[in-house]
Amino acid sequence: MPPPMSVPGWVWAVSIAALLALILLDLVVVDRKPHKISVGEAAKWVAFYVGCAVAFGVGVWIFGGSEQAAGFATGYITEYSLSVDNLFIFMIIMANFAVPAIHQHRVLLIGIMMALVMRGVFIGVGAQAVQRFSWIFWLFGAILIYTAVKLVSDKNGSGEYDPNGGLVRLVRRLFPVTDEYHDGRLVIKRDGRRWLTPMFIVIVAIGGADLVFAVDSIPAIFGITQDAYLVFAANAFALMGLRQLYFLLGGLVEKLVYLSYGLAVILGFIGAKLVLHALHENELPFINGGEHVTWVPEISNWLSLGVIVTVLAVTTLLSILKNRRTPPAAATPGPDTELPAPETAGNPQH
Fold first, then answer.
1. Alpha-carbon span 143 to 121, nearest angstrom
2. What pLDDT is recorded for position 322?
3. What are phi and psi of 236, to 5 degrees?
4. Tens digits of per-residue pLDDT, 39-51?
5. How far apart are CA 85 and CA 183, in angstroms?
6. What is the mean pLDDT of the segment spanning 232-242?
């Protein structure tokens, strides 16, 4: 793997300021007047965010070199592809809590802002860990290989996620929650006390889900590049474009029937790459006497990029061919789905 770039503090500051400006733009243009996001509007925003990522990658190529640009591109594509699989869980959460279509964008925006903060912390810790402890590559590699096996063995490929799981149940125990939505408000005042709304609970569920997803996505991108700046940028661009992709793909996510197998191959490949790198950096006394294993091959970022793009292209093509031969099944609830408010929306303890 190439050494991390030397990124001065002002570049970090400008990058974070630009990210905040994008979020502010989204708040002013899209979220100022809540409405149901159309496919055309979502497509334009997806193209905009992908264009921003491409422009950033070109900048990395110019100022950091081709190998660093390949690392960013590979990390971005990997994070984005992992996010597509996660959209299925977001749709289940939205349907479970019967989130009105006009407020789904706000839920995703706030949830993704939370995810950016959480992943920023993880990336900071991870960057320090990989620089100081070579054995962390063994741990990351094991996590990715385990996740790959789990994806293949899991029928849905997305795992089971309970929207009313531990974090949501804890919030319900601590605070009263209303039975109904109050426009896009998170908190209301009723009978002299403050109540949370189901909108707040949905955001907690989305944030909790992304926290779980980060367990495999962060080790995956550190298997591609150890540069904390590129890791953060790839995550930020992938997350910023994720919510618009949610409205663009809708129920089509379920039709990518082989995506889980493709992601399993990608995670397994990156896991193997991490293991090889761990052997190169080896300091464990019970492996080769604590000496570096120099004869094992290193996998370049360009090869990683080629493998990942090929796997995604093949799994998408196979999914399209599969859907043409198979009659349509019952649709998974998508962004336009509005169901009667479930009983779990309220808080029976209050």
1. 19
2. 84
3. -65, -45
4. 787 888 888 989 9
5. 29
6. 85
Question: CB within 8 A of 50, min separation 6: which ones?
Answer: 241
Q: Tokens 């209303």 appear where?
A: 178
User: How many other CB atoms are there within 10 angstroms of residue 313's CB atom?
Assistant: 11
**The pLDDT of residue 254:** 65
What is residue 177's DSSP assignment? B
pTM of the model: 0.72
First-residue to last-residue Cα distance in the chain: 55
Cα–chain center distance at 253? 15
With residue 196 as reference, give the H or E element that holds it: strand 193-196
- How far, CA to CA in Å, does 141 sit from each of 4, 77, 151, 219, 271? 20, 19, 15, 8, 4
> Which is it for the CA torsion 144, 149, 152, 154, positive or negative?
negative
Q: Tell me, what DSSP letter sits at residue 101?
A: G
Ramachandran region of residue 336, left (φ > 0), alpha (ψ -120 to 50) or beta?
alpha
- Taking the C-alpha atoms of residue 74 and residue 52, their distance in angstroms, rounded to an integer, is 15
Neighbouring-strand partners of residue 188: 195
CB atoms within 10 A of CB 100: 15
For residue 3, what pLDDT band results from cuts at 50, 70 and 90?
Answer: low
Cβ-based neighbour number of residue 306 at 10 Å: 13
Region 256-270 average pLDDT: 83
- As a whole number of angstroms, the distance between CA 219 and CA 239 comes to 16
Counting other chains too, the contacts that 104-107 makes at CB distance below 8 Å and 24 or more residues apart are: 104/37, 104/246, 104/247, 104/335, 105/30, 105/31, 105/34, 105/37, 105/243, 105/247, 106/31, 106/34, 106/184, 106/199, 107/199, 107/202, 107/203, 107/206
* pLDDT for 287 beyond 70: no
- 8 Å CB contact between 196 and 171: yes
**Mean pLDDT of the 200-216 span:** 77
Rounded to the nearest angstrom, the gap between the alpha carbon of residue 90 and the centroid of all alpha carbons in its chain is: 11
> 310: how many CB neighbours lie within 10 A of its CB?
12
Q: Are 260 and 123 in contact (CB under 8 A)?
A: no
Cα 333 off chain centre by = 20
Residue 233 CB-half CA count within 13 A: 29
CA-CA-CA-CA torsion sign (132, 135, 137, 139): negative
pLDDT at 58: 94
